Amino acid sequence: MTDSRSDCLFCKIVTGEVPAEVVREGERTLAFRDINPQAPTHVLIVPREHYPDVASAGAAGVGVVDEIAREAREVARAEGIAESGYRLVFNTGPGAGQTVFHVHGHLLGGRGLQWPPG
């Protein structure tokens, strides 16, 4: 696990060092397609600022989690899944499946999503 900004894949995507299929750019966020999609729509929404996980982003008290949720709504509208429904998932820690330690929301939709998820 790394939370070093210089080693962070998503920080490198935000700065353009690593290419990604960007679907939406906000002032504080970037949304791009997941390279291993788990649904017809699978977009990652990340803040431009580095936080290792959603818990640390929420604890910072700067509204970044709210911003990710707002951007998810806009991406869902653009992708045509806002009306049928979508899921926004945050994995926090290795035990939950987090593999990149830069907070990111997984926006999933375009198919039925069962519960419980995993």
UniProtKB/TrEMBL annotation:
Q: Where is this motif: Histidine triad motif?
A: 102-106
- Catalytic center residues: 104 (tele-amp-histidine intermediate)
Question: Could you state a single Gene Ontology molecular function term?
Answer: catalytic activity
Using the record's annotation, list all stretches that form the HIT domain. Answer: 9-118
Q: Which SUPFAM superfamilies match?
A: HIT-like
Question: Could you identify this protein by its name?
Answer: Histidine triad (HIT) protein
